[in-house]
C-alpha cells in the first residue's frame, strides 16, 4: 500500500508524517503544538513542491508569533479590546495581540491536541486530532473542536474541521486557517493571484471592520509591488470557490478550494508579509470581529455541530 503514517521527533516535539510513497506527496502535523501542519509537499509532474512556509527549527516554531499554519478557533482575527456581547451578556477575552490591544486568533493555538483516528486506505490516508475548549476565560462554553487532515492519491490535501457544543447554552463559533504559501524559490513579485471576490471589508487603523467596498481589481492580478492585508467576502453562487496562486514561470498553480454556503467559508483573508517571500491565504467562516457584528457567525445549540472543508492541489 502506497500510503503510510509514522511518528518522528522534531527536536523536543513529536510529529506525525502522512505520505504517499508512490508520489512523494506528504504532510507533517505537530499535535502538541496546536496540531499545525509543519510541512506540506505536493507534486506537479516531475517537481515536488514544498508549498507551506513555517519556522525552520523546533525552537523557532515554539517561539512563533506570526501564527504560521495555525488553527484559529473559536474565533479568528481580532476582537477589539477582547470584548464582545453575546445573547445579551458581555464577555472579556485575554488581550493577547502584540501591543495588548485586541484578542486575536482564538483559543487553540499552541495547545496540545489529542490524537484521534488514523486511517490508511488504497486511495487516501488521514489523521484526526481533538481539543476540548472548556470554561476558558472570556469564553465559558464547552466545545469539542477537531480537525482531520487527509492526503488523497490524486494529490489533494484536505483540512476538515468539526465543532460540537457539549454545553447547555448556545455558543458562538468561528473557524479559520492561517497558512503561508510559497511556490519554489520565487518571491511574491513573480506570482499572480486570483481572488474569488468583488467585495472587500474596509478596516479602521486597528484592522477592525467598519464597512465594505467594491473590489473591482481585474483577476488574476500580478503581485509585483502589490500589498494585501485584506478580508474579502467571497462569491457564493455555488458550493465552493477557489483562490489561485499562480507561477507562470514554473507553470504551476496552487488552487485553494473552500466550501461556501450557509455556515461555511464565506470569507477570505489575503496578506503579503513585508519579506515578500510568501502569501497568507486564510479561509474564514465569518468576518473579522463577528463575535460583535454577527457577520457569518455560527451559533451552536446544545448537541449541535458545524463543519467545513478546505482543500489544496497543484494544477
TrEMBL record:
The keyword Lipoprotein does not apply. Keywords: Calcium. Pfam families: Aldose_epim (PF01263). Its cofactor is Ca(2+). InterPro entries: Aldose_1/G6P_1-epimerase, Gal_mutarotase_sf_dom, GH-type_carb-bd. Monomer. This is Aldose 1-epimerase. The lineage of its organism: Bacteria, Pseudomonadati, Bacteroidota, Cytophagia, Cytophagales.
Amino acid at each position: 500500500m502506497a500510503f503510510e503514517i509514522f511518528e518522528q521527533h522534531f527536536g523536543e516535539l513529536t510529529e506525525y508524517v502522512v505520505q504517499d510513497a508512490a508520489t512523494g506527496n506528504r504532510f507533517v502535523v505537530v499535535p502538541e503544538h496546536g496540531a499545525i501542519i509543519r510541512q506540506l509537499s505536493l507534486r506537479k509532474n516531475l517537481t515536488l513542491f514544498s508549498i507551506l512556509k513555517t519556522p525552520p527549527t523546533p525552537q523557532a516554531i515554539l517561539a512563533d508569533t506570526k501564527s504560521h499554519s495555525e488553527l484559529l478557533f473559536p474565533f479568528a482575527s481580532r476582537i477589539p479590546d477582547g470584548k464582545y456581547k453575546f445573547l445579551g451578556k458581555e464577555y472579556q477575552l485575554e488581550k493577547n495581540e502584540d501591543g495588548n490591544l485586541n484578542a486575536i486568533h482564538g483559543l487553540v493555538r499552541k495547545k496540545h491536541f489529542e490524537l484521534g483516528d488514523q486511517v490508511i486506505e488504497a486511495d487516501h490516508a488521514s489523521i484526526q486530532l481533538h481539543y476540548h475548549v472548556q470554561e476558558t476565560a472570556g469564553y465559558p462554553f464547552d466545545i469539542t473542536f477537531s480537525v482531520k487532515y487527509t492526503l488523497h492519491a490524486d494529490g489533494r490535501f484536505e483540512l476538515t474541521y468539526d465543532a460540537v457544543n457539549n454545553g447547555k447554552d448556545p455558543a458562538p463559533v468561528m473557524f479559520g486557517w492561517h497558512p503561508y504559501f510559497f511556490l519554489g524559490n520565487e518571491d511574491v513579485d513573480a506570482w499572480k493571484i486570483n481572488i474569488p471576490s468583488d467585495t472587500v471589508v474596509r478596516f479602521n487603523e486597528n484592522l477592525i471592520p467598519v464597512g465594505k467596498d467594491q473590489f473591482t481589481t481585474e483577476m488574476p492580478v500580478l503581485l509585483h509591488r502589490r500589498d494585501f492585508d485584506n478580508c474579502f467576502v467571497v462569491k457564493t453562487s455555488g458550493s465552493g470557490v477557489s483562490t489561485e496562486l499562480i507561477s507562470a514561470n514554473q507553470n504551476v498553480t496552487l488552487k485553494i478550494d473552500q466550501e461556501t454556503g450557509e455556515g461555511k467559508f464565506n470569507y477570505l483573508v489575503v496578506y503579503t508579509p513585508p519579506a515578500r517571500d510568501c502569501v497568507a491565504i486564510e479561509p474564514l467562516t465569518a468576518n473579522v470581529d463577528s463575535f460583535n457584528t454577527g457577520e457569518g457567525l455560527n451559533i451552536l445549540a446544545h448537541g449541535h455541530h458545524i463543519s467545513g472543508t478546505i482543500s489544496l492541489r497543484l494544477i
